[in-house]
Amino acid sequence: MRRRTRRRLGPLRALLWLLALTLLWLIGVAAHVLVVGGRDDAGRADVIIVLGAAAYDARPSPVFEERIRHGIELYQRGLAPMLIFTGGYGGSAARFSESQVARRYALRQDVPDDAILIESVSRTTRDNLREARRLMQDHDLHRAIVVSDPLHMARALRMAREEGIDAMGSATPTTRFRSWNASWRFLAREVYFFHRDHWTRLTGRRTLP
Description:
With 209 residues, the protein is α/β, with parallel strands linked by helices. The chain contains 6 helices and 7 strands.
């Protein structure tokens, strides 16, 4: 009787162990995202790359404004002599690209026009970084500080290095994803993207970042 019970419990124990290991793994990935986003590794660089986010006509969204302000603050601290603002048009009716909105914002903060580079074609994080790298090559810039939200920073840095950018991360010190509901949803999304990106590299399939 005991032998039969053990046989029945064997698969159940194996399943419970598998679920426990999966949970521990997911917690570890989430912790990695949080640790990377909580660090500020900004140092001397050639350029500051501010990753795009939504803009409402000529106004940056609250999330994008946080990124722009932090990029400008790093520039004003003298960590890099140039800023790259990234982000294309949010839709066919948009009058300004995200990067144009950011440039206008920076000019109002007394950042000189010749210290700003923009691209207006990207639609995703990877596109942001790919276009930023092209601008860096065109202007002989080599080392970059990447600016984004804390929970987005781990993926942004991973993509930057995949695109051949010598990158340091500097997450915004504050985030608009303040509520617990918004924060855990953003974190869950980044954990998903971590696994999706690894699967994409293993299989060679191309997906939208």
